[in-house]
C-alpha cells in the first residue's frame, strides 16, 4: 500500500511512518518544516519527505493518507484531500487497526513523564531480551528511532491525552485499549482543546472505560486529580505507587531529580506485572541513559554545562530547575543555574500558566523567558528581578556573555527546536 503521512516530522507521526514501513508499505510524508532529531531519523529510515504542505503531493498515486493532528480545515492540502476520493485515517486509529489489535499494550499516560517512563519500560524489557514493539514521543539515548515493530506480544506506547485529528477530537489514547495503563500524574494542560481539569478527567475516564477487567491500572496515589478520576469508576485491577516506593530509592540511576525517581518507581512496578525478577529490573534501570532532550547534557564549554530539556509546563519547569539546583558533580559545591524557557506550547501562548511559570522560574539563580514578539503582552507585568524577557537568540547570547563568570549551568527548556539556540550559545561562550 502507498501511504502518505501529513505532519510527519512530529515524533509520533515519524514513529507511525517507521511502523508502516516495517509492515511493508511504501511510505512518504510531508510537513511544514523538518528539524533534528526526526529529520535524521526519517532519513535513516529512507522515508521520502517533502517540506511544506503542497496540495500537489496528493497528485501521486496514494492509497491512504494518515493525517496528523497538526492538520486543520482550511489548509489547501486538507481541502484537496476531502474533495478527492483518497482514503484517510488518523495516526492513532491506523495504529490500533493495523498493529495494536494484535498486541498486549502497555500505555503510559499523564501530563508529565510519559516519554521517560515509556522509554525506561522499553529499555527494561529489551535489557531482558523481551524485545517489545514500541512507539515513544522522544528518542531514547542510544536508540536510532522512536518506534520499532517486533514479533513480541508486548507494545509499549506513550499515551497522549491530546486530540487525535481534526475529524476526531477524542484523545489519542482512546484508541489504544491497554492491558497495562500507567497514570503518572494529571494536571491542567492543552488549554486549546480542554476547558478545565474536569474535561481532562472525563477523557481519562473514557480511557478507563475501554479497559478489560483483567487489565491493570498503575497510578500515582499522591495525585489528587488521579484519585478524583478513579472515584468516577474503575473496572480493572488497581496498583498504587506510594511515596515509599521512591522517597528512599534502592535503585541506581543516571537520571537526575525527584520527578525521575517517581518515573523509575512506577516503571519498576509496571515491569513487575510482567513477572520480571526485581534484580533484572534494577540492572536495567542502572544502565538506562535517558532520553534525548529530557535533561540531556549537550556539552560543557568554558566550565559551563549546557542541558537541553523538553519541559514546557510550569510543573516540569520547576522540577527541572530544582533537579539542576540540587545536582552536585564531583568538582562543584555550588551550582549557579541560568534557566531559559521558550514559550511554544498552546497553553503557554494563551497565558494559561503565566503566573505559575514565574514562580517556577524564581527557583533558578537567573532566568530568561523567550517568546515571539507578537506575544509580548502576556509577560508585560513581570516584575521579578530574576526573570528577563527576550525575543531573540541574540539578546539571550548577549545576556549570557555578561553572566559567564556567574553561572555553572545553562538549562534550556522548550518543546520546540532548540538546536539553533544551543549552537549559538556554544559558539558565543567559547569566544
Named at the architecture level, the CATH assignment of the largest domain is 3-Layer(aba) Sandwich
User: What percent strand?
Assistant: 15-25%
Quickly count the domains: 3
The helix/strand class is alpha/beta
The CATH class of the largest domain is identified as Alpha Beta
Cα separation of the termini: 53 Å
What share of residues is helical? 25-40%
The side-by-side strand order for the widest beta sheet comes to: 8-7-9-6-12-13-14
Q: What is the average per-residue confidence, as pLDDT, rounded to a whole number?
A: 89
Question: Treating each run of at least 4 consecutive H or I residues as one helix, how many helices?
Answer: 14
Biggest sheet statistics: 7 strands, mixed
Number of strands: 20
CATH topology of the largest domain: UDP-N-acetylmuramoyl-L-alanine:D-glutamate ligase
What general outline do the C-alpha atoms trace?
A: globular
> CATH superfamily assignment of the largest domain?
Mur-like, catalytic domain
Using only CA atoms, what is the Rg? 22 Å
Uncertain regions spanning at least 5 consecutive residues: none
